[in-house]
Amino acid sequence: MEQQYESYRDLADCLKSASALLNLECKSQLHQDIITICNHLVNPSFRIAVFGPFNHGKSTLLNAILGNRTLPIDLIPTTGAAITVKYGSDVRTRIMLVDGTEISRSGTEVLQQFAILDGNRQMRKDVASVEVFCPHPFLETGVELLDLPGTNDRDEQDNLVREQLLSADLVIQLLDARKLMTLGERENLRDWLLDRGIKTVIFVANFLNLLEPDEQKQVQNRLVFVAESFRAELPPGFSNLYRVDALPALRARLKGDVAAANSSGLAAFETALQNIVGILQPNRSSVRLPRVQAIASQIQHSLKAKIDPIAIEIKSFDDKQNTKIEIKQKAANLIYKGFGTSVGELRDWLALPKLLTKYQAGAAVALAENNFKAWQTNTLKKDLTQLQFAAVKWLSQAYEFFQEERSQDLLIPFPSEPQVILPSKPSNTDDLSEPGSIAVGGGIGWLLGGPVGAAVVGSISYLLNKNIQTQDEQLAKESYHQEVAKLCISAVEDYLSGFSSQGLAILAEYEQKSEKVICFEFSQEPLEITNRRENLQQLQNAFNQLLRELEKVKILSNHQIYQELPKYTNTNRKYSPQPKRVQTYSQKDPGVKQQQENTAKNSEIRLKSVFPRPEEVEAKFRDWELNEEIAQMKAEMRSPNACRQTSPGSQTGKQQNATQSNKAPNQPKTQTEKDKITHAYRILRLQANASLAEVKQAYRTLVKQWHPDLFVGKPQLQKQAQEKMHLLNEAYAILSEK
Questions:
Q1: Residue 303, SS3?
Q2: How high is the pLDDT of residue 730?
């Protein structure tokens, strides 16, 4: 039993805590009901309230039950307060005033001063509670009787009655047989009792003795109908309708006339009342919990009315923020991927073995021909600028997208031009009979001039294309122009080695700085949203706790527990794709140094034409796709509706994208347009009305097949590829923009 009351106390505390979050006015009906039911929930006494309109004989009936004139009775509405009758060893009265003053008197005469209506039929506003103590055996069992003011007289009295009924375990509805069940009484039954879970109700008909016998029979039939139509919940075998002639019953009880008391109906009613109480009293929770359920349901609906709009507001804000974050994260990943690819290509290009393979021969020839500056500008610088631009472009995209930190330009300077110190000129400079001494025109006139200079240029090609053994006897047979050619080759190798070393170092530093650019900070949410989020969490916690407490006392609910809100961190956070450190070439790297030495010593580098490989074309095409995705995400970020769209990762977003991708283009309007579209489908090798996804896939496949870079060194095929690409681009533009 103690554990049960502990659960009731917890439930009462929970109801009060939940209602406090509703900011109810103290005089509101819901607030008053909550206070009343919480106090009653832990009250160990069993309360019986007598309820009915004024002048129906409520106090008279209670006096008849008690056996004396304990309560004030008159022919006009007199009871002006809720009078609680409790057990006591002697008759006495205790009155508590609103200011906390306690008035305790022997007997009940003081009720005439504090518990009846004044001359204007108004209740006293300074009275908080009225209690009468009486030595009656029925009260000694833990029963309390509650005499309520009459209803249908004043709103103030009605409000007091409505509030007190919620704390009654059993309600005696007193009816006047002379004017049975007025409209007001029926409304009170519905609004004050049934709708609030108060169903332990007994109807008692008074004044039936004042009617003629024929009228009594008719009224009795109507009473049965009224009683049966009310869904009372009393123990099985007990009627919810009794007849008691209150005033004759009181007179008989005061005189000790048992026969008269029996004929008034009082004895039968008292017996039934005591038996009903004896059954209900040990299980008071079955009576009180339905009323708690009714009050709790109101609180839950009021809480939900507060929770749901805030939850929608917070979800809308979170969806917008998540959409922005998802777009930014996707952009950061794409930009980092594109940047990594571009930097990787530049790093690979700067590797000394690659530089020597691609440029050493041309640079050595340019040096021999006194044309190194022009070669550096037109060849090496042109290639470097293109690769640098590809890398810088991605950081510019990041700055434009995230506006975090402006990226610095990537500037890789060129070393000083290589210098060649000529060896002493031999006497037989006209000897051009050695292999590789092929005159290619021009000559290094500023060094040697004449056919010997031409022979030096030829020797450069010869030496770089042939494995030269370094045995002493081979070196001894070298001619003068071969010796000069080797000096040019060596000078260019030193030049490219310095260029590679410095360029890789600058590129590594540039990569580190890129981490500050390809990233973004999560913006802090407004303080108003933070406060709303905290308020929402508080309301949901109260709602969930109320559900749990109701479940403990076996009160079922149609509501579901609110899921815990995701933890939100409003501190500064930064997102970065977390780039992995890429190993850079260094002159200090033993492996690279050994590779360079082996390359130089064995002269294994060959002159060759450099053709783009299919995978390089694929990389270029992917670069174009990344650019397209970034541009699309920028448009989404600028769009005022972007934040209201379904996030890219959601199922709805995927379905929308799939629908758009698979949807056939809109139909053309003119015959000219129809002809263009038909021709475009034919160029892309597609059936008419193919989807946009199919158009894009066909275009991608054909571009990889006909990209002009695949035919470098093959003029006729390259020209044909350029013409084909023009047609493909034109067809793709027509079908994708249609």
A1: helix
A2: 85
